[in-house]
């Protein structure tokens, strides 16, 4: 089994050979950038001075217009108005503007991972019949007491150093019609660990503590259900203080929420 | 910049350029030209602020932050999105050693992650940085780093751990 670190090390390729020309080019680019910044700074300063001088010139009473004559009769002339101070002596103090902050969003289901928008669970679909399973499959420490009728189980051995996962899929589905990973009901381990600052248990996927998220019952256990775009749903079921199982219906395969939770509640570790 | 500082800068570049380039390759999902651009941008900005950062906060942290921000903010350069690399040198001249198909699979999978998820996964698992360091580099909270990493990993699991016949469709 290869872990993620090895895969990334391999994918990053070899350390490239560094030549003196590369170093010289980096230094040259840096020096050029410093020169450009100095020049930009000076040009900005000159421009600012010019703008201020022009402003002063324009509002100064009795300022001459370079010796040119005024506009001829019939032409529209610009009127230079005196600059009025914002607060005249003796005038009342202006009322400060109070800005109200927008109310904070109420806690709801976690946002959709692709769009970032809050997505409600989809409307209940036609439930699929659940039948008894409970088969312990070699190579995986997960087992489900139920499975969708006619579906087959697949054990997925992770190449990322994660524990093996148990997937269920409908053999009648044509994988070519779905995006990658979208035809499975997945049962896998998920991350939950103490938050560094508060010590409360943080659900890794959502970056929130378990207590902050709304719970539902999945069999005898507590769970979090989140909906995502396309009707897929995600159940995180608390197995113990430090263990969490994720059951993901990635394709809204015709399950309503109660069926999904009944299925999730039947899953657990091999004893 | 004084000559001594130039020498220090060059020593830093000689020691860290390779690591930065490898990180950039993963961030860009194997786009060698884009990766080189990111590294050059980071090193150029590092030179401009070298006198300050080498003493105050550490050059490595500063350079990494520029690299990651340059990658995440790349959308500002519109021409980038219109260009698509179609002829990878990797196909024409595979590097010796381990399986190139594995490498391309990982790079393809990384390419399908949103930028922030990709950056979080690369910094956590390739660079071995902890969540606090990644949060500082990405300019976000540790909770955000954790959730971005978890989502990125979940997607990578879906893409990399699929049965072989499905992986073929990814390539």
Structural class based on helices, strands and sheet pairing of chain B: mainly alpha
Provide mean pLDDT of chain A, rounded.
73
Mean pLDDT of chain B: 80
Give the topology string of chain A: H per helix, E per strand: HHEEEEEEEEEEEEEHE
By CATH, the architecture of the largest domain in chain A is named 3-Layer(aba) Sandwich
Count up the domains of chain A: 2
What is the β-strand count of chain B?
0
- The number of helical runs of chain A is 3
Low-pLDDT stretches of chain A? 63-124
**What is the alpha-carbon Rg of chain B in Å?**
17 Å
The number of strands of chain A is: 14
The interface involving the most residues is between: A-B, 46 and 58 residues
Strand content of chain B: under 5%
Q: What is the CATH C-level name of the largest domain in chain A?
A: Alpha Beta
What's the CATH topology name of the largest domain in chain A? Answer: Protein Transport Mog1p, Chain A
Task: Briefly characterize the structure.
The complex is a heterodimer of chains A (271) and B (171). Chain A has 271 residues and is α+β, with helices and mostly antiparallel strands.
Verbal overview:
The complex is a heterodimer of chains A (271) and B (171). With 271 residues, chain A is of the alpha+beta class. Chain A has 2 domains: 19-100, no CATH class; 130-269, Protein Transport Mog1p, Chain A (3-Layer(aba) Sandwich). Chain A is 21% helix and 22% strand. Chain A contains 3 helices and 14 strands. In chain A, strands 4-5-6-13-12-11-10 form a 7-stranded antiparallel β-sheet. A 3-stranded antiparallel β-sheet of chain A has the order 7-8-9, with no helix packed on it. A two-stranded antiparallel sheet of chain A has the order 1-3. In chain A, a hairpin with an 8-residue loop joins β4 (152-156) and β5. The longest helix of chain A has 40 residues, at 20-59. Mean pLDDT of chain A is 73; it is low at 63-124. Chain B has 171 residues and is mainly α. Chain B contains 11 helices and no strands. Chain B has helices at 3-27, 32-48, 50-56, 59-72, 78-82, 89-92, 100-111, 115-126, 131-138, 142-160, 164-170. In chain B, α2 packs across α4 (59-72). The model of chain B is unreliable at 86-94 and 163-171 (pLDDT under 50). Classes of the chains: A alpha+beta (271), B mainly alpha (171). Chains A and B meet through α1 and α2 of A and α1, α2, α7, α8 and α10 of B.
């Amino acid at each position: 089994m290869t872990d993620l670190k090895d895969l990334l090390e391999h994918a990053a390729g070899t350390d490239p050979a560094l030549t003196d020309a590369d170093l010289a080019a980096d230094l040259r680019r840096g020096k050029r950038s410093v020169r450009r910044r100095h020049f930009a700074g000076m040009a900005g300063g000159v421009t600012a001075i010019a703008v201020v001088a022009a402003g002063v010139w324009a509002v100064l009473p009795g300022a001459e217009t370079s010796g040119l004559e005024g506009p001829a009769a019939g032409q529209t002339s610009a009127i230079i108005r005196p600059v009025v101070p914002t607060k005249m002596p003796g005038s009342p103090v202006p009322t400060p503007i109070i800005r109200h902050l927008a109310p904070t969003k109420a806690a709801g289901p976690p946002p959709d991972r692709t769009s970032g928008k809050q997505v409600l669970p989809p409307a209940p679909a036609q439930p699929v019949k659940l039948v008894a399973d409970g088969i312990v499959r070699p190579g995986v420490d997960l087992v489900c007491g139920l499975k969708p009728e006619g579906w087959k189980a697949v054990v997925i051995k992770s190449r990322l150093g994660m524990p093996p996962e148990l997937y269920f899929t409908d053999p009648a589905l044509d994988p070519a019609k779905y995006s990658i990973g979208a035809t499975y009901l997945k049962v896998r381990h998920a991350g939950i660990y103490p938050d560094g600052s508060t010590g409360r248990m943080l659900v890794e996927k959502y970056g929130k503590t378990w207590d902050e998220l709304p719970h539902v019952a999945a069999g005898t256990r507590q769970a979090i259900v989140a909906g995502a775009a396309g009707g897929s749903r995600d159940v995180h079921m608390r197995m113990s203080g430090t263990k969490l199982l994720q059951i993901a219906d990635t394709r809204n395969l015709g399950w309503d929420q109660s069926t999904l939770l009944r299925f999730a509640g039947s899953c657990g570790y091999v004893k | 910049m004084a000559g001594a500082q130039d020498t220090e800068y060059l020593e830093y570049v000689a020691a860290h350029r390779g690591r930065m380039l490898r990180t950039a390759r993963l961030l860009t999902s194997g786009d060698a030209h884009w990766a080189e651009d990111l590294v050059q941008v980071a090193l150029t900005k590092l030179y401009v602020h070298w006198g300050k950062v080498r003493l105050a906060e550490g050059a490595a942290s500063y350079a990494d932050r520029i690299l990651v921000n340059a990658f995440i903010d790349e959308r500002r350069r519109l021409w980038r999105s219109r260009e698509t690399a179609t002829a990878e040198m990797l196909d024409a001249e595979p590097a010796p050693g381990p399986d190139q198909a594995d490498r391309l699979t990982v790079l393809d999978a990384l390419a399908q992650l949103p930028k922030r998820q990709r950056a979080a996964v690369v910094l956590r698992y390739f660079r071995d940085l902890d969540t606090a360091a990644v949060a500082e580099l990405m300019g976000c909270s540790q909770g955000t780093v954790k959730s971005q990493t978890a989502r990125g990993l979940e997607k990578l699991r879906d893409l990399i751990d699929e049965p072989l016949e499905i992986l073929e469709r990814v390539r």
